[in-house]
Amino acid sequence: MSGVVSVGFRGGALDIRDLTVGYGGEPVLHSVSFDLRPGEIVALLGANGAGKTTLLRAVARLVRVASGTIALDGADLGQVRTEDLARRGVALVPDGRSVVGELTVDENLRLAALWRHRGAARERAVNGIYEIFGSLARRRSSAGHQLSGGERQMLALGRALITEPTVLALDEPSLGLAPLIVAQVMGTLRETAASRGLTVLLAEQNVTSALSIADRGVVLNLGRVVADASAATLANDTHLRHAYLGF
Ligand SMILES: Nc1ncnc2c1ncn2[C@@H]1O[C@H](COP(=O)(O)OP(=O)(O)OP(=O)(O)O)[C@@H](O)[C@H]1O
């Protein structure tokens, strides 16, 4: 489904090659390689401490890469500064939810849209986010800190989408959400990715939810890729689920 590319949008191709990343000289990702094709949703799975967040932080250039490359549409992102990454089309939704609690929903969206859209185009962009997330439109005057967990997650997603990324990296969007809300967030993510042809890297502990919307899954164990297969294959692999995913 996410392979459908609509007119005007095209997902980016992300190629992660021999990526080694560590903290204080101690590697936590060991020569990790996998790629995301344009418009693909890839679930990044693994137990606590497997290295999922570190990998997303490496893509967002928030940690130093010891060796290896991350390329977007064939161009190495190695020299791109963190603050320029969004202009190159990469958006990260961290698990802290990237919402400014003191600002209203509307202000949060406008702030995120600042560098991408001006004047009437910004209004259209904000309204476009409200069309995707109807519940946010109803809370547009509420402060970020007054939102429920699900609404905050939708606002974090909206803030990322309004920059019109070609690659969206999400860190555990299901964290702390009730199952029904998780289903809503995942459903919206899948529909939006499909309609925009977005490429999505989705780090999740909620394996079932992630695989329900993903095309493919990559499983990390202690910083190494131990599986890279279609979502259907991974969902049916009981050995893998027991060995690396905790059930
Ligand atoms: N800032 C840091 N300094 C030192 N070590 C860190 C730091 N952040 C993470 N680590 C270590 O790196 C390893 C990978 O952590 P990471 O957060 O990337 O895993 P994860 O798969 O996202 O885990 P979780 O699902 O629990 O969030 C862990 O052993 C962790 O303790």
TrEMBL record:
GO molecular function: ATP binding; ATP hydrolysis activity; branched-chain amino acid transmembrane transporter activity
GO BP terms in the entry: L-amino acid transport
InterPro entries (alphabetical): AAA+_ATPase, ABC_transporter-like_ATP-bd, ABC_transporter-like_CS, BCAA_Transport_ATP-bd_LivF, P-loop_NTPase
Chain ranges of the ABC transporter domain: 14-247
Highest rank taxon of the organism: Bacteria
The family this protein is said to belong to: Belongs to the ABC transporter superfamily.
Name by which UniProt lists this protein: Branched-chain amino acid transport system ATP-binding protein
Phylogenetic lineage: Bacteria, Bacillati, Actinomycetota, Actinomycetes, Micrococcales
